[in-house]
Specification:
This protein is α+β, with helices and mostly antiparallel strands. Helices cover 55% and strands 18% of the residues. It is a lipid-anchor.
Length: 198
Amino acid sequence: MPKVFSIAVADNSGRILAAEHDLTTFNYFQRGSVQEFLGFFIKTAVERTQRGQRQKIEEQGTYVGHVYVRGDGLAGVIVTDIEYPTRSAFTIVNKILEEFSSKFPASQWAGMNPGTTAAVYPELKQQLVKYQDPHAADPLLRVQRDLDETKIVLHKTMESLLNRGEVLDDLVQRSDQLSSQSKMFYKTAKSTNSCCSY
């Protein structure tokens, strides 16, 4: 399953205003180093992203940073594994930035830091948990998943119907909707294909 490691909000200088991390997949003794690396990665990515620009930055085929710096200088970063869908990641960044800017006006950004922001912005931690599932962020992914499940159910239903050949034969013979030519085609196709069945 795809994984979100970090969600952060920063100003365009790279100063992190709020951040949450999920490092449960790492060894307990590695977590401090990983969190330090994520902070460095977020700061560097934001510093090198111009206002109004989005970037997807891959790090050693392990992490992917999805960065967006808005025109007002507020930046959002989500760090995921390589399997996480890009569209979902940027959808999350947009939502986080909208939520953050509506809660904290630009005049408050200068006095913020991740250590104190967690107490006044617990929603970021909730978002980190919620968006471990990319379908929660992207309604189109959710619709696609539902369609795929429906297709599997329909496929299974057709297979089970086709496995009962004698019932299908009876249905074809009794159908008023099929012309005699269609019924003849069905019989010919069935006899042609029967030579190859095991």
